[in-house]
């Protein structure tokens, strides 16, 4: 029998059993819709990750310090020792920081958190302190003595790193603080994130300007009260980026000239959310806003992304020379991206597994209905065989029926997914529908129909004509 | 010159296992049908006539003996060959018509030709003459359920005829019809016989068997020639 005639028979049977076809294909409809949505969610997640990390340089390493919580009882909590000789002390030993050993402050045994005198003077030798700690380290265990000091990373630490760690293309230091803002359209003060940065922060973070220029070295050196507004911050404070430019904004009651407005950057997963932040010169912030009470992050850029692990180890070594009892958090953007992508992939895989289960259930549904159909149509099969229908014809007819039922289910499923998609957006789930997702869903549907339709079709083709004819 | 044999059966036996008991349905049947003959196989219910029809129609196998249809050794044929023989050599007419209810009259009629690999248009063209002869031209788009019993049987006859088989095999063709319709069908059979078709008709009804040119009686699996 010609294939086209088999298809005609299939069409005839499907048209005459529309409702049954629809009910049979429900499993496939759900499976196909799930596949399309799963792929759309996966792609949306990937795009989200890419967007959230787009301001991060893959070769960037963020170095920060977190002081351990007071564990009670006997503990050492001391300030990062300061002192007049701070400039020369605290240098890594390979730089000749031998003077550092006795230049630090005496650690505070009371457990009270001592404050550094200032950002500038806080820098000092840690030798005595570290030696003291090392001495007790043997008694109390090294883990107890780590990160008990109060350490404020400074631009000098950054200079140490850039001087002694090879393979760096750039480095910067920044911190954030929450400050009350008013100005523009704001009637009552509002809290905003203010970031103290150096002039190269914009380049390192791939920030682009909409109006004006980013902060300059001179702004930092002169501690100028100038700021750059993130796109959303500018809109919220002044109504628009254009109006914000060259206006005055009050940070902690001091006027700052808006020297520039950033272009919209989008959401970020790591680092400072640039759209909502206000950027000021690093030194200006320390002078007028924070004093030494900051936890800066040093960001270094590895010239070669493949070399990032070596850079990480070298940074640790350099910092260990200055702060022997401190452990710094060093995170790289690449790992964050990888982790985010991995978790996204895991989620996608989980959803695909779920969709596969739906397909299997749908397939079993098709198989059941086809078995019933073969039973119902035993006489018809007998007639076809009696008048010369071959096993191949019968097999093909039933398989094609299963294929078309699942194809119809697949098409409806894809259409359903396009209806569901806006609903998901309503729940803030980002999806990116794709042709490949729809094609894959259709392919899965057809394969499911064929695989699960085969056995009933094979059973039909094996019927003995005389038995099939007398089945009624 | 000897007549050309369409059916040649020798010593055909068929039995079924009924639990522990073996039921011999056909006992060493010798049966021949010449080309152009209209033969009735007459027998009561359970005599083995349907089993014989199934074997003649290549829908069932025999335990022993030989059977040739148009000199084709059916007893040695494989399933694939039997399928082809059913399609090309035999036209079936069943008591219950056995039309496919979801197909139209035309779709039912042309089905054997489609099975043969012909396309729809060619098949429809080849069936035109038969359709016209059986007066079905007005009913081609109808479903079997929309027809009377006599009309349905005419559709079944048309389906059997349009593939131009060497043997028309009718199983109780009037069994489901009223007397008038039955007579109409039997008149049609006579006409087909006169046109040169070879017909084997199975019936339990003596009055129906009378329409045939020759009658053989089957009783308890044994065949006797009627005088």
* pLDDT averaged residue by residue of chain A: 79
SS-based class of chain B: alpha/beta
What is the total domain count of chain B? 1
In the CATH classification, which architecture of chain B applies?
A: 3-Layer(aba) Sandwich
Strand order of the largest sheet of chain A: 2-3-8-5-7-6
Number of strands of chain B: 10
Largest sheet of chain A: 6 strands, mixed, barrel
Number of strands of chain A: 10
| Helix-strand pattern of chain B | EEEHEEHEHHHEHEHEE
Number of domains of chain A: 3
Question: Which strand-content bin applies to the residues of chain A?
Answer: 15-25%
Shape of chain A: elongated
DSSP strand (E) fraction of chain B? 25-35%
What's the alpha carbon Rg of chain B, rounded to whole Å?
17 Å
Radius of gyration of chain A: 34 Å
Category by helix and strand content of chain A: alpha+beta
Termini gap of chain B = 23 Å
**Percent of residues of chain B in helical segments?**
25-40%
Order of helices and strands of chain A: HHHEHHHEEHEHEHHEEEHEHEHHHHH
Low-confidence stretches of chain B: none
């Amino acid at each position: 029998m010609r294939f086209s005639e088999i298809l005609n028979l299939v069409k005839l049977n499907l048209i005459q059993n529309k409702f049954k076809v629809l009910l049979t294909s429900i499993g496939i409809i759900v499976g196909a819709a799930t596949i399309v949505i799963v792929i759309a969610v996966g792609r949306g997640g990937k795009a989200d990750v890419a967007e959230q990390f787009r301001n991060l340089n893959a070769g960037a390493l963020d170095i920060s310090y977190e002081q351990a919580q007071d564990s009670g009882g006997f503990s050492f909590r001391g300030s990062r020792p300061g002192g007049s000789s701070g400039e020369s002390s605290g240098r890594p030993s390979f730089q000749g920081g031998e003077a550092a050993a006795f230049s630090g402050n005496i650690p505070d045994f009371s457990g009270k958190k001592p404050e550094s005198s200032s950002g500038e003077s806080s820098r000092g030798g840690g030798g005595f302190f570290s030696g003291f700690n090392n001495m007790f380290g043997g008694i109390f265990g090294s883990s107890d003595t780590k990160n008990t000091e109060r350490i404020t990373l400074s631009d000098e630490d950054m200079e140490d790193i850039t001087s002694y760690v090879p393979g760096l293309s750039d480095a910067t230091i920044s911190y954030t603080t929450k400050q009350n803002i008013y100005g523009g359209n704001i009637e009552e003060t509002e809290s905003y994130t203010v970031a103290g940065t150096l002039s190269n922060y914009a380049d390192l973070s791939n920030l682009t300007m909409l109006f004006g220029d980013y902060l300059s070295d001179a702004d930092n050196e002169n501690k100028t009260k100038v700021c750059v507004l993130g796109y959303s911050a500018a809109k919220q404070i002044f109504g628009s980026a254009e109006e914000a430019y060259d206006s005055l904004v009050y940070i902690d009651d001091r006027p700052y000239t808006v020297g520039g407005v950033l272009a919209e950057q989008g959401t970020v997963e790591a680092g400072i959310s640039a759209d909502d932040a206000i950027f000021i010169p690093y030194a200006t912030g320390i002078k007028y806003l924070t004093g030494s009470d900051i936890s800066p992050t040093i960001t270094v850029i590895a010239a070669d992304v493949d070399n990032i692990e070596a850079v990480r180890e070298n940074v640790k070594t350099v910092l260990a020379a200055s702060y022997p009892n401190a452990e710094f958090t060093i995170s790289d953007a690449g790992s964050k991206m990888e982790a985010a992508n991995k978790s996204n992939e895991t989620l996608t895989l989980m959803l695909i597994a779920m969709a596969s289960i739906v397909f299997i259930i749908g397939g079993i549904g098709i198989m059941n209905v086809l078995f019933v159909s073969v039973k119902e149509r035993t006489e018809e099969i007998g007639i076809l065989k009696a008048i010369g229908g071959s096993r191949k014809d019968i097999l093909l007819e039933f398989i094609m029926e299963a294929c078309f039922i699942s194809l119809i289910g697949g098409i409806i499923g894809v259409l359903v997914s396009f209806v569901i998609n806006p609903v998901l957006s309503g729940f803030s789930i980002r999806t990116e529908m794709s042709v490949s997702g729809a094609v894959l869903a259709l392919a899965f549907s057809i394969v499911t129909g064929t695989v699960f339709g085969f056995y009933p079709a094979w059973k039909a083709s094996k019927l003995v004509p005389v038995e099939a004819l007398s089945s009624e | 010159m000897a007549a050309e044999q369409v059916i040649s059966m020798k010593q055909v036996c068929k039995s079924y296992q009924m639990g522990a008991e073996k039921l011999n349905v056909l006992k060493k049947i010798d049966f021949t049908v010449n080309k152009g003959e209209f033969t009735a196989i007459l027998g009561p219910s359970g005599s083995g006539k349907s089993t014989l029809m199934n074997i003649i129609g290549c829908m069932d196998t025999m335990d022993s003996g030989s059977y040739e249809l148009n000199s084709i050794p059916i007893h040695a044929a494989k399933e694939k060959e039997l399928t082809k023989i059913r399609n090309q050599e035999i036209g079936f007419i069943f008591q219950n018509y056995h039309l496919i209810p979801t197909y139209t009259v035309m779709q039912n009629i042309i089905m054997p030709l489609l099975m043969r690999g012909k396309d729809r248009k060619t098949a429809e063209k080849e069936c035109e003459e038969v359709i016209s002869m059986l007066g079905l031209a007005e009913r081609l788009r109808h479903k079997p359920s929309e027809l009377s019993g006599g009309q349905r049987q005419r559709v079944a006859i048309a389906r059997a005829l349009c593939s131009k088989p060497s043997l028309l095999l009718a199983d109780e063709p009037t069994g489901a019809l009223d007397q008038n319709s039955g007579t109409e069908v039997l008149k049609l059979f006579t006409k087909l016989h006169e046109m040169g078709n070879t017909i084997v008709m199975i019936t339990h009804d003596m009055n129906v068997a009378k329409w045939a040119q020759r009658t053989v009686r089957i009783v308890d699996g044994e065949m006797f020639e009627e005088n």
